[in-house]
Amino acid sequence: MEKYKKQTVPSGQHISGQAPAPQINDTTRKGDKQSVMAAAPRLRIDRQNITFSEADRLGKGGFGTVYKGLWKDQPVAIKVVNEEDRKLIPIHVLYDDVLKEVEPMLSLKHPYVITFLGICSHETYGPMIISELCEGGSLQSFLERTKGPLPANLRDKFARQICEGVQSFHNKNIVHRDLKPGNILVTKEEDIKITDFGLVIDLNRTASAQGGAGTRLYMAPEAFALNAENLTTKADIWALGIIILELHGVSLLVLFQQLIRLRQAPDIPDSVPLQAKEVIKKCSSLEPNDRPTAGQLLKVLTGTSTPPPKPVSPSAPASRPASPQPSNIKHADEYEVVEASFKAAKKGECAALTQMIKTHGVAILDKRNDHGDTPFLAAASRGQAGAMPLMYDAYGPSILKQTYKNGRTAMHWAAANGHVAAVNKLLEWDLTLLDACDKTGTTPFITARYHVDVLKALYAKGQDKQNMLTHQTNLRDTVLHDAVKASKGDSVAQLLEWGVEAGVNLLDIKGYEGKTPWDLASEKPGMRKVMEKYKQ
């Protein structure tokens, strides 16, 4: 959660134009969600005024998912903590962290920064962050679709708008600390909105600046050594320079060795215009105090200030990374190879995967990405039933033992995402995957609650059908509890039908907080209607 960080202000003071942060003391931290929410009543949005469906998912990050919803008939973005993380983190800690991070952002009203509207308390999803809706996707996906330098007018507009947005929160002493194209949205009108989809929660809760490889590519050299709380606005300026470099069509993968291994300023190709080159050089100063402010950069980009000219030696062309060594993945090459393997696995590109395994060996299938996935887990999550056998044959049956950091197997991911073909392939290889539990005690059958066709495939192969129906997670919930919470009427009806056949009264099993599936449907008339004929 520690990504947006307001710099220290002397006790008793607050930044001009910004309301004081809610006072969250030790008593509040130890209390329940009601006491935490009471610490900042002006942030609270009434649950009755919020509507959304899990089918309207806009995106999912490491720990949070964003949905499109309505607040008093106004389209909004709704951010919730992922289910597995809600089960692992005490509820008051979730509210505490959300309040501390969102409060400074409420004072930001700028056309190029996403507007945060408030927090909604939900009995199932916990704290939900409500913000302005932007449906155009991220700048990262925009650049990937473009595949090359942007048109000059659009590129320059994006650079100016990002600088203006950064300047707006720097003026309030707010440091973003994770500025990158993935945290910048593009509207349908092709305007910029700076945001942070990781805002929902950071489970690491560590003092040091953390992030995946995608984040590290934008991290200033001092961020690798400093406590995150000691980072200044100058760390954002470094990231800003790297983003501008990317806007000019420069792939960061070729700069990996400089940016990550050597932690040097990037070489700038001759194709980058002189004005932009000067901006990037200033942003990439190794000494933080030598970097300009966002406002100073904006003046250069808008032509209202002329930077002092610096000679560029024609005899010093941009250096290039060493050629990949086919049989030995090291340093800069490793990142590119691993990224390529995940891309191939996610897209089911069998020929590319075959070549990578042949060139780099099966060890490439042990590599983890920033989220903790392996290529095999990534393929299962996306239902790539063609690529999975290729990896299984190359690696052997032990590849089925690979798990995500929360203990989920390939079967969990294939089932959760509704991929019947991938589920059937995994069942063909190992039926014991049906009984695998992640760290929250959740089985693949429970993760399949959203997809009745997957439930049927798993149930058909189950040896102990009664146990499949009555298995309870660490929080005591069954698959029916979770199906009711998700408002999946078809899954609820099928599970209840199986319950009758197995001689089990699923409606009366007490789960989390002693609630039965029937209790959970008290405010869901549609669910109650499905359940009524099974209620004894």
Using only CA atoms, what is the Rg? Answer: 25 Å
Largest sheet: spatial strand order: 2-6-7-5-4-3
Largest sheet: 6 strands, mixed
Q: From the helix content, strand content and strand pairing, which structural class follows? A: alpha+beta
Number of strands: 10
How much strand content do the residues show? 5-15%
What percentage of residues falls in helices of 4 or more residues? 40-55%
List low-confidence stretches.
1-36, 197-214, 305-332
Write out the CATH superfamily name of the domain at 139-301: Transferase(Phosphotransferase) domain 1
CATH architecture call of the domain at 139-301: Orthogonal Bundle
Which descriptor suits the 3D outline?
globular
What is the fold-level CATH name, i.e. the topology of the domain at 139-301? Transferase(Phosphotransferase), domain 1
Distance between the termini: 45 Å
Average pLDDT number: 78
Biased composition (Low complexity): 315-327
InterPro entries: Ankyrin_rpt, Ankyrin_rpt-contain_sf, Kinase-like_dom_sf, Prot_kinase_dom, Protein_kinase_ATP_BS, Ser/Thr_kinase_AS, Ser/Thr_Kinases-Pseudokinases
Organism: Vitrella brassicaformis (strain CCMP3155)
Keywords: ANK repeat, ATP-binding, Kinase, Nucleotide-binding, Transferase
